Amino acid sequence: MTATSGERLLVNFFYANPVGHAVEALHYCLGHHLADPTREVSVGEDQYLDARTETDAGRLYSVRCLMGTSRLAVRRSPLARILPFERRVLFEADELLFNVLPALGRVCILSERLTDYRLHGENNYQNAHLSLEKITRYRLVHEALRACMHGIYSKLELVGPYVTLSASAVEEHCERVKRFEEALLSRKQALNVVLGSPHILGFVNPSLAKRLAFALPVLAFGLRPSLLAMARLRRLGPRRGFHSERLL
Question: Is the pTM of this model over 0.85?
Fold first, then answer.
């Protein structure tokens, strides 16, 4: 946008939701432009952050998904400090890196989009699935990740806010996946999860009545058939009852 008044405005989308940051940033731009059409509006700037501070650690942690796979570039010097890994990494090497490397120094998040990321149909980590085999593999991968992370933290004596946030998040995720796996194996465990911890299944604050309603087919048929049936019903019409987010 070109300004005649000479005023320029930078819209920083760093605090926006990591999933919808681009859309939210564009809404901000549109609003500011409508308020003053002569104002030049641009989106984002390079972010230089130090994860050893409380504020930057929280900001980096909230957008850690931006540091995965092909979106990650690392200098040789920090890699030399953590390599070779003393424990076996089954997968998720990028998650290991962005859970550890920011604790060593400064991180720059570029405002310019350099890559596009597409999920293929058999993606084992982003696409929702109810395969017991895949969930077991997913649990083993993250338990190995947790062990390797703690090994590096201990070796380098890393402490600080980012280390605390990353370690607790991986620990919580491992526990969630383990309980999900147990719920697929046991109707009793599934019932406990549905009634007491429905967030483990990806459900967002369902009422007690909705939990009890879903508990009946789970008790009768098991968790996996019940979730598959719910997914089929959702595809037939508008979503009602439970609101679900992807767990895996």
Answer: no
